[in-house]
């Protein structure tokens, strides 16, 4: 009777060890996935009219890299993924049109025309703007944003397949 | 041959450990040292710099960016993306803050942060409200030195 209990426990120990090893492999894989997605490269679905004609209205999947902004290598004209200053749970895609220290002149309302505003971008901030001036909420509305809100730089578009390739 | 295999094993183990540590530090919690006395007496109540407090920073709150007035948070500096500050949130979106000369409304998606030690703190009174997206975690406890282990309240 005791021998049977002992052999049962031994078998259970073997199975538990194997289960633990499998779980730890899955855990390590998930950690690797997190690090790659957050620090190296990730894919994002972007949609909306604010970056027409560069990005489509109905949604594209783009690959974004997360290395450049950590080394300060984001430059003028880059399309970047940014955490919205109005809602921290939302990511927006816009183009960098000004770096710190630049003086920018823009028209506050492109439909009305003439009233142009001039602004100097403070230290540590950047100016983001959508390519579609008429349908984009960007730095023309909420001002320059801190550089730290930038989370990634768009590399190339992978979906839809007829638009595969780097963004203009 | 033996030492090459040993080095390879050590490299593999440290790579795995590093990846797991990075994931835990991003998603769960991390320990950071507190520099400066802008949060006295809550943290670093003495001026000695070799007795810095170490605090536990919780990262679960970053899932929905749900914060409340009174939370002590770690955030990236709006003037230099490489710096990080620790201050207390004293104004949430929509609230009114009375600054030295006027009354300011905290815009949506932003928060007003101030250090507990008003005289030596560089905070929202200087650089204005900060977007909540800059926040990198909430400080929950002091974990070092052992005699100062405590929960940080509102």
TrEMBL record, chain A:
<dbReference type="InterPro" id="IPR019758">
    <property type="entry name" value="Pept_S26A_signal_pept_1_CS"/>
</dbReference>
<dbReference type="GO" id="GO:0006627">
    <property type="term" value="P:protein processing involved in protein targeting to mitochondrion"/>
</dbReference>
<keyword id="KW-0378">Hydrolase</keyword>
<feature type="domain" description="Peptidase S26">
    <location>
        <begin position="119"/>
        <end position="159"/>
    </location>
</feature>
<comment type="subunit">
    <text>Heterodimer of 2 subunits, IMP1A/B and IMP12.</text>
</comment>
<dbReference type="Pfam" id="PF10502">
    <property type="entry name" value="Peptidase_S26"/>
</dbReference>
<dbReference type="InterPro" id="IPR052064">
    <property type="entry name" value="Mito_IMP1_subunit"/>
</dbReference>
<dbReference type="GO" id="GO:0006465">
    <property type="term" value="P:signal peptide processing"/>
</dbReference>
<keyword id="KW-0496">Mitochondrion</keyword>
<dbReference type="GO" id="GO:0004252">
    <property type="term" value="F:serine-type endopeptidase activity"/>
</dbReference>
<keyword id="KW-0472">Membrane</keyword>
<dbReference type="InterPro" id="IPR036286">
    <property type="entry name" value="LexA/Signal_pep-like_sf"/>
</dbReference>
<feature type="active site">
    <location>
        <position position="50"/>
    </location>
</feature>
<dbReference type="InterPro" id="IPR019533">
    <property type="entry name" value="Peptidase_S26"/>
</dbReference>
<feature type="active site">
    <location>
        <position position="94"/>
    </location>
</feature>
<dbReference type="InterPro" id="IPR000223">
    <property type="entry name" value="Pept_S26A_signal_pept_1"/>
</dbReference>
<keyword id="KW-0999">Mitochondrion inner membrane</keyword>
<feature type="domain" description="Peptidase S26">
    <location>
        <begin position="23"/>
        <end position="114"/>
    </location>
</feature>
<dbReference type="GO" id="GO:0042720">
    <property type="term" value="C:mitochondrial inner membrane peptidase complex"/>
</dbReference>
<comment type="similarity">
    <text>Belongs to the peptidase S26 family. IMP1 subfamily.</text>
</comment>
<comment type="function">
    <text>Catalyzes the removal of transit peptides required for the targeting of proteins from the mitochondrial matrix, across the inner membrane, into the inter-membrane space.</text>
</comment>
<protein>
    <recommendedName>
        <fullName>Peptidase S26 domain-containing protein</fullName>
    </recommendedName>
</protein>
């Amino acid at each position: 009777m005791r021998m049977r209990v002992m052999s049962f426990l031994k078998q259970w120990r073997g199975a538990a060890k194997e289960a633990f090893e499998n779980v730890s492999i899955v855990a390590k894989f998930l950690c690797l996935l997190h690090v790659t997605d957050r620090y190296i490269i990730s894919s994002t679905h972007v949609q909306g009219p604010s970056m027409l004609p560069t990005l489509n209205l109905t949604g594209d999947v783009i690959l974004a890299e997360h290395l450049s902004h950590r080394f300060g290598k984001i430059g003028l004209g880059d399309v970047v993924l940014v955490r919205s200053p109005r809602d921290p749970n939302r990511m927006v895609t816009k183009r960098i049109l000004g770096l710190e220290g630049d003086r920018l002149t823009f028209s506050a309302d492109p439909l009305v025309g003439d009233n142009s505003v001039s602004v100097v971008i403070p230290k540590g901030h950047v100016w983001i703007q959508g390519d579609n001036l008429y349908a984009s909420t960007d730095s023309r509305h909420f001002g320059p944003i801190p550089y730290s809100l930038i989370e990634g730089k768009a590399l190339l578009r992978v979906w839809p397949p007829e638009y595969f390739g780097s963004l203009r | 041959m033996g030492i090459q295999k040993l080095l390879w094993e050590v490299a593999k183990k440290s790579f795995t450990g590093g990846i797991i540590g990075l994931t835990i530090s991003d998603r769960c919690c991390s320990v950071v040292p507190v520099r400066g006395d802008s949060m006295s007496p809550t943290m670093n109540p003495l001026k000695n710099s070799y007795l810095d407090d170490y605090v536990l920073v919780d990262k679960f709150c970053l899932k929905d960016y749900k914060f409340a007035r009174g939370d002590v948070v770690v955030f990236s500096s709006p003037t230099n993306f490489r710096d990080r500050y620790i201050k207390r949130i004293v104004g949430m979106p929509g609230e009114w803050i009375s600054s030295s000369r006027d009354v300011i409304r905290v815009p949506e998606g932003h928060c007003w942060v101030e250090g507990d030690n008003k005289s030596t703190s560089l905070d929202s009174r200087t650089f204005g409200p900060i977007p909540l997206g800059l926040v990198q975690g909430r400080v929950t406890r002091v974990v070092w030195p052992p005699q100062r282990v405590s929960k940080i309240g509102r």
